[in-house]
Design goal:
Helices cover 44% and strands 20% of the residues. The protein is built from 12 helices and 14 strands. Helix 4 packs parallel to helix 5 and helix 4 crosses helix 12. Belongs to the LDH/MDH superfamily. MDH type 2 family.
Length: 331
């Protein structure tokens, strides 16, 4: 057995964490031979609830779980962690705009960046789930200057999973038979779910998704809007935001980052180097491949006029969000 790694989950008493903790502790994320020591961070008023979560983790009798530390202190929570799931954020409620979320959450991620900088491992892999995820990841990275920028990512895997599932249903094939659908840009309603390079396996034969679906109008309209608005649709139905699917996506993201993405492209919000004419120094979702714990943006894709417009639009929103966030940090 390998030595245990320390893994922190913030917002650990919340809905997403409730589904996520089992996946991490069961071996679904870091592999069946990797023991984990869980650090659970939440705010002081949630410590009672967190105690119940700790009891449940004990009652799962998971062989890979070597210990659990519940805490309200960020420096305790982030000490020596190799992986960080930053889930805790003020949740978006029905009718709430992202701008409202921004000012509340930027302060949280500034504080967490400072704590990571001070006590986490320098090669810690940080996944920001709490919204607005892209900009929160950027701020977190800014306040953790001793940790490489590429170690901060934002989750767009939920959008990718949503998009993949929509295409599979449309084609009447299993979800795993669709690959390389891309989410570009922000995890917001400006994101661009792009099926133009996606591949579907139909009756054992791989085909480009656009040819298999043969409905360009659908791929530019209802496919895009369904994925963009899926989070709001879940809130409207459930009266709470996505939790089970968000936890699954966080597991997928971190598993691929640690163990590799194989022959598939995965979407991750990463600090932009200007690839594909995107604004630099914002956290932008790109298609990436991952090997040996390092992600790399997929190069050489053709960007249609329609895609160009979509990329520019989501890029513009990210530049504005970044400015708003930096203004909040100055206060």
């Amino acid at each position: 057995m390998a030595a245990p790694i320390k893994v922190v989950v913030t917002g650990a008493a919340g809905q997403i964490a409730y589904s996520l903790l089992y996946q991490i502790a069961s071996g679904a994320v870091f592999g069946p031979d990797q023991p984990v020591y869980l650090h659970l961070l939440d705010i002081a008023p949630m410590m009672g609830v967190l105690e119940g979560v700790v009891m449940e983790l004990a009652d799962c009798a998971l062989p890979l779980l070597t210990g659990v530390l519940p805490t309200a202190n960020p420096e305790e929570a982030f000490k020596d962690v190799a992986a960080a799931f930053l889930v805790g954020a003020m949740p978006r409620r029905e009718g709430m705009e992202r701008k409202d979320l921004l000012s509340a959450n930027v302060r949280i991620f500034k504080e967490q960046g400072q704590a990571l900088d001070k006590v986490a491992k320098k090669d810690v892999k940080v996944l920001v789930v709490g919204n607005p995820a892209n900009t929160n990841a950027l701020i977190c990275s800014k306040y953790a200057p001793s940790i490489p920028k590429e170690n901060f990512t934002a989750m767009t895997r939920l959008d990718q999973n949503r998009a993949q599932s929509q295409l599979a249903v449309k084609l009447g094939i299993p979800v795993q038979d669709v690959k390389n659908v891309i989410i570009w840009g922000n995890h917001s309603s400006t994101q661009f779910p792009d099926a133009s390079n996606a591949i579907a396996k139909i009756n054992g034969v791989e085909k480009p998704v656009p040819a298999a679906i043969n409905d360009d109008e659908y791929l530019k309209t209802s496919f895009v809007t369904t994925v963009q608005k899926r989070g709001a649709a879940v809130i409207a139905a459930r009266k709470m935001s996505s939790a089970l699917s968000a936890a699954k996506a966080a597991s997928d993201h971190m598993r691929d980052w640690f163990l590799g993405s194989g022959d598939r492209w995965v979407s991750m919000g990463v600090v932009s180097d200007g690839s594909y004419g995107t604004p630099r120094d914002v956290v932008f979702s790109f298609p990436v491949t991952i090997k040996n714990g390092k992600w790399k943006i997929v190069e050489g894709l053709t960007i249609s006029d329609f895609a160009r417009q979509m990329l520019d639009n989501t890029g513009k929103e990210l530049v504005e969000e970044k400015q708003d966030a930096l203004d909040v940090c100055k206060d």
